Amino acid sequence: MGFVAAVQRALIERYNTFTGRASRDEFWWFVLFVLLVWIAANVIDAALGSPLLQLVVSLALLVPWLAVVVRRLHDADRSGWWALLLLLPVIGLIALIVIGLTRGTAGENRFGPAPRPASTG
After folding, report:
1. pTM score of the predicted model
2. pLDDT over 60 at 95, yes or no
3. How far apart are CA 105 and CA 77, in angstroms?
4. Residue 104: helix, strand or coil by DSSP?
5. Quick one: pLDDT at residue 121?
6. What's the sign of the alpha-carbon dihedral 37, 30, 77, 109?
7. Cβ neighbours of residue 84 closer than 8 Å, sequence gap 6 or more
8. What string of DSSP letters covers 4-61?
9. Of 36, 39, 31, nearest in space to 97 by CA
10. How far apart are CA 89 and CA 91, in angstroms?
11. Domain spans in the chain, listed from the N-terminal domain onward
């Protein structure tokens, strides 16, 4: 799955879907997209001297980002409640990065079939 397909799937097709599974490609491409948009918003806000754009971007991307995190956890055969690890400042982030890097379960698991590959974009 390519960058455009992953972003399209996360923002348009499954922006509020917390069921099912997300592949590593979909997850990491969307994380890159969120980081790039957030950095751009920070640069614009620094130039304008106001944190308004960063706030709007953060709120707009919060639900799609959480949905992708939960679906990625499902692909690793873990409950979406593991996303609460993000509340632990360093340890939680490291744990979720490791889970995000691990290969998902092959075939179907308790959260559904393996993520289908999408056309590259």
Report:
1. 0.86
2. yes
3. 7
4. coil
5. 45
6. positive
7. 92
8. HHHHHIIIIISTT--SS---HHHHHHHHHHHHHHHHHHHHHHHHHT-SHHHHHHHHHH
9. 31
10. 6
11. 3-101
